[in-house]
Amino acid sequence: MLSHSVFSVVPIAIFGGTKLAVAATSGSFSILSMNVAGLPSILQTNDVPGDKATNAGTIGSDFAKYGYDVINVQEDFNYHAYIYATDNHTYRTATSGGAGIGSGLNTLANFDWIDYTRIGWDDCSDASGDDCLTPKGFTFMRTVVDSGVYIDMYDIHADAGTEAGDETARNSNLAQVAAYIDTWSAGNAVLVFGDTNSRYTRTEDNIGIFASQNGLTDAWLQLERGGVVPTVESLCDNPSTTNDCETVDKVFYRGNAIVQLSATYFNYESSKFVQADGDILSDHNPITVDFDWKLSTTLRQSDFWGGPHGDWFSDLTTLSTRASPKASVLTFRGGARLDSVGLTLADGTSFVHGGTGGTQVQLSLAASEYWTSAVLCQGTKDSHTRNFYIKAMTSTGRTLTTGTTTNDCATFTAPSGWQIVGFLGQDGDEMDQLGFIFAPQ
After folding, report:
1. Are 390 and 420 in contact (CB under 8 A)?
2. Which of 86, 288, 303, 425 has a CA that sits 20 to 30 A from residue 185's CA?
3. Which domains does the chain have, with CATH numbers?
4. Which pLDDT score, from 0 to 100, does residue 319 have?
5. Contacts of 305 (CB under 8 A, 6+ apart)
6. Region 336-363: what's the mean pLDDT?
7. Which string of DSSP letters, residue by residue, matches 106-155?
8. CB count, 10 Å around CB of 200?
9. Which residues of 296-328 are buried (b: 16+ CB within 10 A; e: fewer)?
10. 68-121, pLDDT tens digit by residue?
């Protein structure tokens, strides 16, 4: 399934100015998760017949053939190059190395991203095998599905096995991802998909943590089981001829106050990923989910400017509880660079992000005056891209500026009839990355 979008004409940010452009308010996309059985054949056959290099090439050509929008792979170790040689996705992560060196986690996508991080597990167990032999873990990327449409996507490969030590390690793995989501995806739409090595009947794993702690929905539970958690283990054949059985490969998701996400289709894609003679290509059933997305009518966001450094922050969670928010006071700090941004809403709610350096500037808005657009300029400091300058412009033509201009600037304008009411991005002592939250006037 290829992604598609429903469009309307609204102003969006461009380099060095603002123009009218086509931006989507709704659309759809497809994802796939597949453990590609890429351990060296001398170490692990995965009970898959045939030559692993040849099989990897077939997997890559199938990725290209079926056109999934985002593909997370696991165990992509020593045959990585064969997959990429036959795949045609525009955006692909670089390998972190073969078995014993890399995590085996990679993503192939039709969408770009603005941040990508690999995180190793805090705990592992060799109780049932050699899970500690290679640095498994999870990856994070902030995926740009469309202008102003961002989804934090996680690829995961948890500790394997069913011994007590394995379940303890896997419980720790899942809890580590859940904690990371709470910190780095606060307020954001999220997708977690990969090889969890867990089933709901393995209660010590606590696979339900993504629902209980992060508010994520299991697409398989939702679409195939009516939300009913299995209490009796039901193993899948490979290839699987039914979606009723449970695999360790899973997809979890949530939307946010800006992007409504709906899972519309789930399937084990086993019959699509076979060798020429019909044999399997992996010891895992690949899984796919189709999603519809739709922008909110009450809150939206701009794209980002600056670099993915510092701590994540978002005013979305607070703004989602406010009826008809309106900025009444803008407060910035700056000097050589942009130190902080802040605003106070008409109801007294205050947002401040960044450090305490620089000189403070402030602008109070009239009752019928709105913050409608902003210019940001970015530059490099200590090898990190940061925001150096901001210029706020109101509906009456008044402005507030601070910082130092550069030759790398962009203008962010609220859609017609909307206003800027908050921020999201990453900060430290200064403003590393910045985006704006819009609400109707």
Report:
1. no
2. 288
3. 4-295 (3.60.10.10), 300-440 (2.100.10.30)
4. 98
5. 13, 376, 378, 387, 410, 412, 433, 434, 435
6. 98
7. EEEESSEEEEEEEEE-S----SSS-GGGS--EEEEEEEEEETTEEEEEEE
8. 21
9. bebbbbbbbbbbbbbebbbbbebbbebeebbbb
10. 999 999 999 999 999 999 999 999 999 999 999 999 999 999 999 999 999 999
- List of residues 6+ apart from 38 with CB closer than 8 A: 52, 56, 75, 76, 77, 78, 79, 80, 99, 104
The tokens describing 359, both together, are: 């000189």
Most distant CA pair in the chain: distance in Å? 73
User: Could you tell me where the beta strands, DSSP code E, fall in 147-299?
Assistant: 149-156, 189-195, 217-218, 249-254, 259-268, 287-295
Q: CA angle, 188 as apex, 441 and 87 as ends, to 5°?
A: 120
Q: How many residues does the chain have?
A: 441
Distance CA 173, CA 160 (A): 11
* 422 strand-pairing partners: 437
Q: Both tokens of residue 309?
A: 């450094």
Read off the pLDDT of each residue in 373-378 and give the average, rounded to a whole number: 98
Closest of 343, 344, 340, 354 to residue 403, by C-alpha: 340
In the three-class reduction of DSSP (H, G, I as helix; E, B as strand; rest coil), residue 282 is classed as coil
- The confidence score (pLDDT) of residue 233 equals 93
Q: Are 193 and 33 in contact (CB under 8 A)?
A: yes
Residue 14 has pLDDT above 50, yes or no: no
What are 37's strand-pairing partners? none
Instruction: Tell me the C-alpha distance between 350 and 359, whole Å.
Output: 19
Distances from the Cα of 266 to the Cα of 31, 32, 222, angstroms: 10, 10, 9
The answer to whether 314 and 186 are in contact (CB under 8 A) is yes
| Residue whose pair of structure tokens reads 């190059």 in the numeric block | 81
The pLDDT of residue 20 is 37
